[in-house]
Amino acid sequence: METERAEFSISELAREFDVTPRAIRFYEDQGLLAPRRAGQRRIYTPRDRTRLKLTLRGKRLGLTLAEIRELIDMYEPGRDERPQLERFREVLDTHRKSLLQQRADIEAQLAEIATFEKRVRKQLGRGRR
Length: 129
Hints:
This protein is mainly alpha-helical. It has two domains: 1-75, Multidrug-efflux Transporter Regulator, Chain: A, Domain 2 (Orthogonal Bundle); 80-129. The protein is 69% helix and 5% strand.
């Protein structure tokens, strides 16, 4: 049976999550991670590891770092997680609406491009005669 580790180095986390140490330091600068220091060395706890995992998951969903930080900061073990879950649902709903609007905008642009391509092909066809 494997026991949970008490600490991690920046290179271990970078390797595990396939990110650069620079990205991890950036998340630290943004207040998402708070490793303790031993001289120049950063020492990350299981809490930091979990926060990094949640940060990367939020980024994959397209959330902003501010949204991610807000959601992560709301979590406290042993507390009612309903407010965090409700806020997460609101953030996801807002993000979904934004993505649907972007998709509609892209589809409109593609339709416009197709119309112009058709006109250009038609004009090019007339010029060959």
